[in-house]
Each structure stands twice: as structure tokens, then as C-alpha cells.
Amino acid sequence: MATHLRSAGKKCTVIGGSGFLGQHMVEQLLKKGYTVNVFDIQKRFDNDRVQFFLGDLCDKEALLPALQGVSVAFHCASPAPSSDNRELFYKVNFMGTKAVVEACKEAGVQKLVLTSSASVVFEGTDIKNGSEDLPYAKNPIDYYTETKILQEKEVLSANDPDNNFFTTAIRPHGIFGPRDPQLVPILVQAAKSGKMKFIIGDGKNLVDFTYVENVVHGHILAAENLQKDSALCGKAFHITNDEPVPFWAFMSRILTGLNYDPPKYHIPYWLAYYLALFLSLALWLLSPLVTIKPTFTPMRVALAGTFHYYSCERAKRDMGYKPVVSLDEAIDRTLQSYPHLRRAKA
Ligand SMILES: NC(=O)C1=CN([C@@H]2O[C@H](COP(=O)(O)OP(=O)(O)OC[C@H]3O[C@@H](n4cnc5c(N)ncnc54)[C@H](OP(=O)(O)O)[C@@H]3O)[C@@H](O)[C@H]2O)C=CC1
Ligand SMILES: CC(C)=CCC[C@@H](C)[C@H]1CC[C@H]2C3=C(CC[C@]12C)[C@@]1(C)CCC(=O)C[C@@H]1CC3
């Protein structure tokens, strides 16, 4: 194959490339010999090998220059769930994704890989080894997830082999790893303020936590296997560590690894849920006077007190996926990457 064709095949754009997952995507893609463009609303790192395009993905005209000569676009941009901004979720995750699809088609990008979420099928009740055949949640756990469903449907239905445009979606769950601004920092903050005393439920509920490098590996395999007549076209794939763990054992391991005490008292699931619901209601009533963002929310209680782990057999079968970093190794690497969050021993 002529060099220019080979390098065109390896030219990609990471939309959301300044974010947590996006930065890890960029690092691995560069290691694998891809030429990488980043499109993001902000620039959070410097790298001479990356071409940055700053803009809002809702603006198709802003996206087009970042997609010229590119064969694969990875779309992993989203407002943070914690921003709690319904209008923004709808605008970016739904309308913005329509703009991404249109811009890809117009620029002649052949493959679009969306970062969706396994939570698109989660309604707050147990899911054990859930497959991709589960229906979309009728009552998603929050509005953010509702717009992730709209977004995934939009991307998968855009798959159009007749026009040489192929789409797929990766559904990760509980991504963690170095530089994650959410899971470990939120947990440490909760521990520091004395909020990590209680285990919700009996502590036996299994959950997937997925190391960021495995999530990246799934995305790259998806891009490399996405082609005419492949099983990936227009389909979604769970990517997990394939090692579900008790939610509270994972939390305790992170906390003790950073010298914080693990939670030890149990509180029944339904009591926690109704307390969180009552708290949300009280804060909503007070919202004209004061704005408080609670750590303890019904959605978090559902995430912390139910089983929700997913099968990644489809990804193994159709793209040869296998986690590249074990959960043990992943936790160790993550703990080492947060020296500033470690509590000094008394
Ligand atoms: N983290 C997790 O556990 C999971 C994440 N996901 C999905 O993975 C993807 C990546 O998540 P993560 O890396 O954690 O998220 P981040 O918030 O770290 O990264 C998202 C990036 O997209 C940028 N962005 C937001 N809005 C726009 C816009 N309008 N135009 C251009 N760029 C924009 C963000 O900028 P800014 O920071 O300024 O908003 C940020 O740089 C998301 O789609 C998320 O839904 C799915 C399952 C689990
Ligand atoms: C499994 C999964 C989807 C993980 C990623 C999300 C996490 C950032 C949060 C999900 C549940 C959250 C949670 C807490 C902290 C942040 C999460 C792990 C608490 C432990 C915070 C303190 C409490 O009051 C209980 C919360 C339970 C859920």
C-alpha cells in the first residue's frame, strides 16, 4: 500500500480529546502510529505530535477542518454529568452528535466510533451480566443518561454502508484510572468530610469498574474492525474489565490505599434511597434561596447499592477484545497516580 494511503487510514480525530478518556485515547493512538487531531472545547495539554482544533461540537462548520483527510472519528465528548444542566446535555449530547454525524459524512470520514455508556440500559434495579440485547432504559437514572440514549440511537442509525460510512458505539462502565477527575477525587472528598462511614445494603452487590486503558483498547479495536459487512456496523458493545467486584470492596480498596478508613456500618438500601430522595426534595424546595450540590443522591445510592455488571462477550467475539490490564494492576496504578490525595499517616 502506498505510504500516503496507509497514513490516511491511520489518521483520526478524537472529539473530546482533552478530557479524561480522550487524553488516554490520544496517548495510545500515538503509540500505535496514528496521526491524531484533537477537537475539544478546550486545550488541556500540549503535544507537538497532536494538531488541536478548538470549538464547540454543536457547530458543524467548526468541526469540518478537524475532520479533513481523516478516516476514523472517535466521539468521546460530553458535558460532565455533575454539571447537572439539562439544556446543555440535550444540546451537546443529542443535537451536537447530529452535527458530528453530519460533519463526518460531509468530510468523507469513513468510521465513527461513539463513546456511549452501559448505563443506557440501567433503571436503578439489578443487572447481572447484562448483554447488549437489553432494551434501552424506559426510565433512565438521570437526564444525562437519557441524552446518552438519544445520542447512541443517532449514531447507530447513521450507519450507512452504501455510502461507505460505518458507525459503532462502545458502552464502558465505571471508567477509572490516572487523571480521572471524578471517581477517586469525589470519594476522597467524601471521606475527608466524614461521609464515607456507611455501606449501602449488604455490600455484596457486584459492579463493573473499568480501567481507562481497557476502554481505550476497546475503542481502537472497534475502529480497526469496523468495515463493510462487519458485525460491528450499527451495533453497540460493552467494554468492561470482565472482573465485576463488590462495589463496596472496590471503594474500600481505593480508600485504604490512600490511607482513609473504609466504611464499616451498614444501612439498608431502601432507607438510604428514601433518605437521599427526601434530601433532594428538601434541597429542591430550598433552591430559590440556596444552591447545594449533595454527595448523597438517589442516583448514587442506586449505583452504590445494586448489581450492575455487563457481559463483554460480544466484544470478545466480534472484535477480539480482552482486557489488557487486570483490575488489581489497574487499582495499583490508579492509587500511585494520586499521591496528592493520599492522607498523611498520623
Ligand atoms: N467517566 C466514566 O465513568 C464514563 C464515561 N462515559 C462517557 O465517556 C465519554 C468521556 O468521558 P470523560 O472522559 O469521563 O469525560 P470528560 O468530561 O473528562 O471529557 C469530555 C471532554 O469533552 C469536552 N466537551 C464538552 N462539551 C463539548 C462541546 N460542546 N464541544 C467540544 N468538546 C466538548 C469536555 O470539555 P469540558 O471539560 O470543558 O466540558 C471534555 O474535555 C463521555 O461521552 C461519557 O459520557 C461513559 C461511561 C462511563
Ligand atoms: C460504577 C460507576 C458507574 C462508577 C462511576 C461513578 C462514580 C463517580 C460515583 C458513582 C456512585 C458514587 C457514590 C459515591 C461517590 C461517587 C460515586 C462512586 C458515594 C460513595 C459518595 C458518598 C456517599 O454518600 C455515598 C455515595 C454512593 C455513590
Automatic annotation (TrEMBL):
One family name in Pfam for this protein: 3Beta_HSD
Protein name: Sterol-4-alpha-carboxylate 3-dehydrogenase, decarboxylating
Domain 3-beta hydroxysteroid dehydrogenase/isomerase: 14-264
Example GO molecular function: 3-beta-hydroxysteroid dehydrogenase [NAD(P)+]/C4-decarboxylase activity
Lineage top rank: taxon: Eukaryota
One BP term from GO: cholesterol biosynthetic process
Pathway in which this enzyme or protein is active: Steroid biosynthesis; zymosterol biosynthesis; zymosterol from lanosterol: step 4/6
